[in-house]
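Morning F.,

Quick status update on the modeling queue. The single chain you submitted on Monday has been processed. Sequence for confirmation:
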Amino acid sequence: MRRRTFDALLTSAGVAIAIVLLVAGGLLTWAHSFITNQVHDQLAAQKIYFPPASAFAHAKPGTEITPDMKPYLLKYSGKLMTTGDEAGAYANHFIAIHLQEIGGGQTYAQLSAKSLADPTNTALANQVATVFKGETLRGLLLNAYAFGKMATIAGIAAIVAFASGALMLLLAAAGLLHLRRTPAESQI
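C-alpha cells below.
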C-alpha cells in the first residue's frame, strides 16, 4: 500500500471521528442545559424553602431541626430549592429523618401492614397516610436529585467530547501535513 493512501485514510478517519465527537459534545451540552433547566423549573415551582439559619442554631433531638441535619442543610438555609443536589439533601436529611421519627423507625410498608391488620386504629391509619405522603415527596425529590446528577454527567461528558474532538482535529491536521510531505512513490 502506498504511504500517501494510508495517510489519507487515517486523516479522513480522524476528521470523521472529530466530527462525531463534536456533534456528541453539542448534544451532551444540550442535554446538560435541558435537564438542568427542567430540574430548576420543576423544583422552583414547588416553592420549597430550607429552614432559616436561625433554626439550626437551636437544633435539638426531637425537634423539627435536629443536630444531624445541620451539616447537610445549613449551607442551603433559607434558600429556595432549585437544584438536584439541594433536593437530595432535603429528601435524605430532612424528610427522611422526620419520616423515621413519625414512623418510629418503621417503613411505610411495615406501618401499612400493621394498619391493615388493625383497621379500627385511626391513629395508625393517619400515621400511615402521613408517612405515605412524606415518602412520595421524598421519592419525587430524589428523582430531581438523580436527574441533576445526569445533567452533571452530561456536562462532563460534553467537555470530554469537545476536547477529544479538538485533539482529533489537530491530529488530522498533522496527518494532512504529513500526507503533503510524503513522496508519492513511498510504500508502507
